[in-house]
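Work package 3, deliverable 3.1, input record:
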Amino acid sequence: MGGEEKMMEKSLVLIKPDGVQRALIGDIIARFEKAGFKVIGMKMVWADKKLAGKHYADDEAWMKSLGTKTKAAYEKKGKPLKETAVEVGRRIRKLLMDFISMSPSVALCIEGHGAIEKIRILVGATAPILAMPGTIRGDLSFDSYELSDASGRPLQNLIHASDSKEAADKEIKIWFKKEELHPYKRIDEPLLYRKVK
Ligand code: UDP
Ligand code: MG
């Protein structure tokens, strides 16, 4: 297998309810398309509690990792959290489930070379106020830990994007049926994947 095939990846991207309500669907999708990635699945979904609970799974390992990252972010700000990592993760999971089912999201399956990592780079840091300019969260939002905490809601950061191959495989299956993913060629693929040998 050539290197280009090994790194051909699919990622699950959600434009969360804040992105849809702020009419940023087109702008966000355009950024992935312009980077060379191919949208192979797309639909608007108003997640119910069941779907929300599958995506933000009642999984201790995931909640612990979410809580650990969050505790580190608060520690860095000089405002350490007293709860354990799992407690923090569980609390945020509940907020996320309410948020994702508040109004419709747009689910995308996006394919391309190194798609999982590159999409995370295009999306930017979790807290928009800290996200670099040029990233989707950095350019299109200012939400912060302070504002979200004071408001009793999760960070509204426009996007979810799979963070690993394992997560992508699992998440794509949650949001899309096999027949909802469509293989086709982009017209610029001969250039993007050009070979001289
Ligand atoms: N989140 C939050 N507060 C936090 C950490 C995370 O509201 O302190 C929310 C935020 O909406 C984020 C989601 O939980 O997008 C999942 O967290 P994760 O660490 O996976 O961030 P991401 O991968 O989206 O950057
Ligand atoms: Mg994540």
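The chain is about 50% helix and 15% strand.
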